[in-house]
Amino acid sequence: MDELSRRKMLAAGGTLGALGALGVATPAHAGALWTWSPKGSVAGAGKGADPRGVWDEEADRIVADIIESGHTAAVNRELRKWTKNGQPLSGALPAELRRFMERARRMPSWADEGKLDTATDFNEKRGLYLGVTYGFASGMMSTVIPREARAVYYSKGGADMRDRITKTAKLGYDIGTSNAYRDEGEMIVTCVKTRLAHAGVRHLLPQSPHWSKVADEEIPISQADMMVTWHSLPTTVMQNLKKWKVPIPDDESAAFLHSWQLCAYMLGIKEEYIPNSWAEADSQAAQVLTPILAPTPEGVKLADMLLNLGTIVPGGPLRYVTKPILGALTRYVLGDEIAGWLKIPREPFWDAVFDTAWEPFIAVREGLLSLEDAPGVLQKVYWAFDEILRLGALLVLSGGDLPISIQIPDANNPD
Ligand code: HEM
To answer: How many angstroms separate the CA atoms of 118 and 107, rounded?
Structure first.
């Protein structure tokens, strides 16, 4: 279906039905039909509505009004004052937004303090690996999620990747802190502000001629898009840690999932779409994430910026973690096909080194293997692998540097 007839069809037939049809018509872009059962969700039940036709109704309307009435800067000023979960919201926020935020900041009944404490232990023990997987599994994967790559590239943040990386890292930092969801923590603040930022993007991006020309949806960041990105985070991270044979007790693995289920909820994802177990998460990811991965010109450019992370992360530049090493790491983590899409050159030395020495490196760090018994090459590259872990840690820590305030955008990327 060409762009014009699709727009006509959307106008005539109602968004929901048309998006369903779009899924059939352009499976490479829109993904397979949604058949994942809400029985596997944290809600345990639901209407099973296709999340490609569901956004964030109330937040979207309120934020669109703020942008249209020219109050974005004033609202952002008030939002900046809200930094701790338990802190009262500014009385100067528009009343409707404030009422919405009061509801949005409340934790769901299924939040489990005990699991969150275990998640803290896990984050402390595994922080180094989490940094690398957030950066080079999740971050790089986001560049081959076409809708995300286009949205990021053509939104305001696309013009300043360093700022965007730091703001996104804030979420990775906050979720790993010991009081993430408690009154003194900041994760709820970060999620609710991100929810508002996303609502702003939904209003603004459709006005971008650049985005509209290439997008395969009328409004970005549907609930389905949100779940796709969510899977690029915890689901992909856990799959990689398992592949690397990092020993993780079941209760820690379940607790890590729990902290991310709460994140999904606080970002405004409906409970009927949030998987209730890793098995359900894996099955949903296989349906919604894996089949939609594809290259886009925007994603290729974003990936190239990410490969320069060694020079742009605050605390850097890291002398040894060069672009070729990060390219090889990306190829190792995401595979040859995706590396090819991202035009990442082959690095005969480093590609082979990751294949033979990364898993033994983890085993040595875990005390499961002695360095003498590991492949000889590991002794030569141990410093580089260690530096990669440091880069990941710095990336996440950069999100803890104040002041970072996630904002409602007021414009798109002008380029
Ligand atoms: C903004 C996280 C899903 C596109 C943000 C921010 C965070 C974040 C922390 C604030 C950082 C900033 O303002 O730069 C997440 C998480 C998601 C998710 C955890 C899912 C679990 C998505 C999806 C899309 C998307 C599905 C697009 C398809 C954007 C855009 C911005 C943004 C365009 C705004 C950048 C700007 O201000 O210009 N997101 N996001 N996000 N996100 Fe998301």
So the answer is: 18
**Chain segment 84-120, per-residue pLDDT in tens:** 999 999 999 999 999 999 999 999 999 999 999 999 9
- Taking residues 14-21, report their average pLDDT: 30
The C-alpha atoms of residue 303 and residue 140 are separated, in whole angstroms, by 6
Domain range summary for the chain, segments of one domain joined by +: 72-106, 119-181+195-400
Residue 6 burial (CB count, 10 A):
18
Asked if residue 230 has its Cβ within 6 Å of ligand 1, the reply is: yes
Q: How far is CA 81 from CA 66, 74, 261, 405, in A?
A: 18, 12, 27, 9
* Ligand 1 in reach of 130 Cβ (< 6 A): no
3-state secondary structure of 275: strand
End-to-end CA distance of the chain: 28
* Residue partners of 238: CB distance under 8 A and separation at least 6: 253, 256, 257, 278
CA dist., res. 141 & res. 338, Å (int): 9
Ligand 1 in contact with 146 (CB < 6 A)? no
Whether ligand 1 lies within 6 angstroms of the CB of 119 is answered as no
Cβ atoms within 10 Å, residue 160: 12
Write down the ipTM of this complex.
0.98
**Spacing, Cα 348 to ligand 1 middle (Å):** 35
Give the residue from 119, 165, 281, 148 showing the smallest Cα distance to 217: 148
Question: How far is residue 135's CA from residue 65's CA, in Å, rounded to a whole number?
Answer: 35
pTM of the model as a whole: 0.90
Sign of CA dihedral 299, 217, 234, 363: negative
Q: How far is CA 131 from CA 206, 257, 277, 295, in A?
A: 33, 16, 23, 24
Residue 126 Cβ inside 6 Å of ligand 1? The answer reads no
CA 198 to ligand 1 centroid distance, Å? 6
Which atom of ligand 1 sits closest to the CA of residue 225?
A: 26
Query: How big is the chain by its Cα radius of gyration, in Å?
Result: 21
Contact between 324 and 350 (Cβ < 8 Å) = yes
Confidence of residue 407 (pLDDT cuts 50, 70, 90): very high
CA distances from 31 to 143, 145, 291, 295 (A): 17, 11, 6, 14
